[in-house]
Every structure is written in C-alpha cells, then in structure tokens.
Amino acid sequence: MPKIVRFYETGGAEVLKIEELPLVEPGVNEVRLKVEAIGLNRAEVMFRQGHYLENPVFPSRLGYEAAGIIDAIGPGTTGLQIGDRVSTIPSFSIGTYGVYGESAVVPAYAVAHYPENLSPVEGTAIWMQYLTAFGALIEFGHLQRDDTVLITAASSSVGLAAIQIVKSVGATAIAITRGADKKSFLMGAGADHVVVTNEQDLVESVMSLTAGKGVNMVFDPVAGPLLGELAGASAPGATIFEYGALSAEPTTFPLFAALAKGLTVRGYTLFEIVKNAESLARGKQFIYSGLKTGELKPIIDRTFPLESIVEAHKYMESNQQQGKIVVKV
Questions:
Q1: Domain containing residue 216: CATH number
Q2: pTM of the shown model
C-alpha cells in the first residue's frame, strides 16, 4: 500500500501524518501517478493551518504539485498513456486531489508533459511558479521591455520565476528582500536591483533606482502594511498585483496614493489562468518556450525525503529558502 500524507486537524507542521492506504483507482477522466517528486508551496502551509481559500475536510490530503509516471488511466481519458512522464498543474481541489504521497489520482486535464532534459525534481517545480507569474505579468499585466517591475518575497520560487520572466521580456526587475543574506543570491538569479528592507527604505530606494519615476508594476504575495509602501514606490498608472496574504496584519487600502497616482490594486490568483483554456494554453506555450531557450530554469533550494515532510513544512515556514523546496519520493 502506498504511503500517503494526510492530516486530521489544522495546525502546525506536526499535524501531517504519513499513512499506508489502499491504492486508489482513477475515475472518469482521471489518471493515477506513481509520484517521484513533490513541489512544496506556501498554499499548502496555509491550507494545513486553515487559512486558505479552501477549507480541509478531515481526514484531508494536501498538495498541488507532483511529478511522476502515469500508472493507471480512468475511463474517458484521452491523449495520455500509461508510462507518460508528467507533472501536475494546480487546477483542482487541494484537499480532494492532494498529491502528497507515493501515489496520487488527479484530473486528466491537470497533468502535462515536461521537457525530457528536466529531472522529476525540476519537473515538479514548473507550473505553480511560472504560471502564477505569467498570469500577472504577461497575461494581465502585458509586460513590455521598457517596464520596471517590483517583486516582493523575491527569493521564493514564484518570486524567482517572476524575475526570470521579467528578464526574458527585457524589462527591469527590482527584487525586495528583508535580509542582506539573500542579496547576492538574488543578483545572481537575474535581478537588476535588490532592496534590503531591513537596511533600506523601500520607497526611497525604489525612487532612487527609477530616477524618481517609480515602478510600472508590482508583484506581491505579502499585502498587509506593505501595500502602502508599494503604492508609494509605484509610478502613476501602475498596477499592483496582490496574489497572496502572507502578512498576518490587516491590509489597509492606500487610498490617497491610489487617488493621486491612478493606481490599480488587483487581486489575482493562479486559478484565473488555469480555469481559462485559452489563457492556460498561452501560459504553457510561453513556459515551454522559455524552458527550451534556458531563459526559464527552475531553481531548487533543497530536497527532503517523504519521511521528512514535517521538517520540509517547517523549513518552508522558516523563510530561509532560496528557490523551490522539493520532497523526493
């Protein structure tokens, strides 16, 4: 019987349990994966804590991203075969179709082949990060070569994906990080500039870097009081994409900056892309192209064995990571 990660109550990482459960057969338009690697995401931490868009129904599985081999195909499934090497696109219920474990059943529409030159560890680090950044920056933001983008939580997997996408277009990326220990890493990852907020004033620094103009676009998963600073660092007519709520403090709308500059503060999630067939197709093509040219390349911070899933979640919560955290199965 495969080992599966489930939890029976919300709380800290220690609520995650590894259990041996019967192998599940895929239903109509579903496939089953023999999982090789699992990509961790902040959404799964929030889901485990009970602070996510979806509430767990206990006992609950969890997990959006896995790379593996298809070992069973449900009725009605077309275009996929047993033995196909695929990874999952986060476009399903995280509790119903959670992928943490040695085996996972997912909707057939939620799997995609990944390039042969990528390992399973890299293959599980594609879709969440690149599609999330693509949707805001390219699909909705219409990023142009002359634009300057401010990227917060820049050393996260999505933040790094955003830096790579900004640079692939030829635009300018300003990365925001709290600690100086990540500055050289972010510069090496392609950022044009790095602002260390524990040592520098965010608004003053950005205005200095942009000759007083401010940035055209902001890509932010933090919100909270930071939103006011991001509005202060924005140029007239800028768009601020809020794609998360990492701050535990209330988010106050920066009314006067928004009025004075004509700012757009836009809530955004990956599901706007993956639930729209045309947007998803454009996103996949953009990502496949970038992976082929090398302009997009997953950055892996650290891997853990499945038996250390609790430690892997604790590590994610420590905010020490510089790239994707992956669990090898």
A1: 3.40.50.720
A2: 0.92
